[in-house]
Amino acid sequence: MIDRYVRSEMEQIWSQENKLHQWLAVELAACQAWANAGKIPQADVDDLKAHATINVDRMAEIEAETHHDVVAFTRMLSESLGSERKWVHYGLTSTDVVDTAQALQLKAANTLIKTDLETLRDTLIRQARRYKKTMLMGRTHGVQAEPMSLGIKLARWVDELNRDLNRFQVVSDELAVGELSGAVGTFANIPPQIEADVCRQLGLRPQPVTSQVLPRDLHAHYLSVLALIATGLETYATEIRGLQRSEIHEVAEPFASGQKGSSAMPHKHNPIGSENITGLARVIRGYMVTAYEDVALWHERDISHSSAERIILPDATALLDYMLHRFNRIMDELVVDEQQMLANINASGGLVFSQQVLLALIDTGLSREVAYDHVQQLANLAMSTGQSFRQLVTDDRFIKEHLESNAVEAAFDLQRHVQYVDEIFSRVGIPTD
Fold first, then answer.
1. d(Cα 71, Cα 195) in Å, to the nearest integer?
2. What is the pLDDT of residues 350-388, one digit of tens each?
3. Residues classed as catalytic
4. Cβ within 8 Å of residue 390, ≥6 positions away
5. 286: which DSSP letter?
6. C-alpha 60 chain-centroid distance
7. At what angle do helices 150-175 and 217-243 cross, to 10 degrees?
8. What secondary structure, in 3-state letters, does 80-102 show?
9. Are 12 and 18 spatial neighbours (Cβ–Cβ below 8 Å)?
10. Closest-CA residue to 136 (of 250, 222, 237, 40)
11. Is the pTM above the cut of 0.85?
12. Listed residue (357, 384, 383) closest to 371, CA to CA
């Protein structure tokens, strides 16, 4: 993890010291389960809990000799124990501890990410309500299409975040599993009841069938959901970037006092936060590919996935946590220029109401082809000469023959584009009062 893109709460979850504490939690839970089953004296388990001490530096020294991190871990623990040390790692193999402890770390990381998602959704709901009827141009193919409201644009993001939360809950639950099934998953040296007891103590579920390692399709599914959430953030960030362009300038990221936009051009206010999010989304999608390639292991297990996961799981969770926090701040403090939005709507001289004129003519009984061709001729004339489309429509003899002046006026009514905003909000679950 790069310090620049990790918050302290997530950094602590993936720290070496916390990882070892989770390993110890699994080891102690296993000893307690053996004691519950009558195999280990409870007094020895109590001594283990009282005396087992983690020494990160000492473990590193042992690992330099053994070249095996779990062996180094158990030997480091043993140095702080008495005769009860014989029960450490009893019946277990390395991945029993590593995968189950990693599930605890992911569970903690997922708690942070879920809160991040809910916070961003709440911010977007608040801003959608604030700008429910704030008009701006809707654009298709990058070209002005028809007016809409900023609130409706944000409601679409809220809807996607609702789906993100549902998907995230599914994969979080899938990953809340442990396994203590032995070398090739047969429970030959540790019965299923021990696994069940350990998982109960740790707040996990036993994975039904394993091969010493948890199935990596679980992690691939998880990374695919993280990548999809990151891609959604990229979508929103790309919209902010587009709307902050000088030629449009309808919204802008917050710009702090003393902030600099360019080392060369003092006037620059750049959407650096949204650009940052766009770049990091690409990284997480790359991690998704790695997670998919980690699924296929040789026979019952190998460790080709291990080195990759030491990078992609901490990084992906840390990056998404960072991205959600950063984009939430952008949206919470978003600068909205309502006058510029209205100016951009009016800049076309009414061209963006061409469909309403078309439909009004069709309502009089004209064929769609005749109505369309005539309106298009007026639109092309407006675009080629710079004349007002609205004025051309108002003065046109053909239009006057078919439409009353009040019908023409209604065709250019901006408010018709927000007449169903409350219904849209209700569909998403955004309060409309």
1. 21
2. 999 999 999 999 999 999 999 999 999 999 999 999 999
3. 141, 262
4. 349, 350, 353, 412
5. H
6. 35
7. 160
8. CCCHHHHHCCCCCCHHHHHHHHH
9. yes
10. 250
11. yes
12. 357
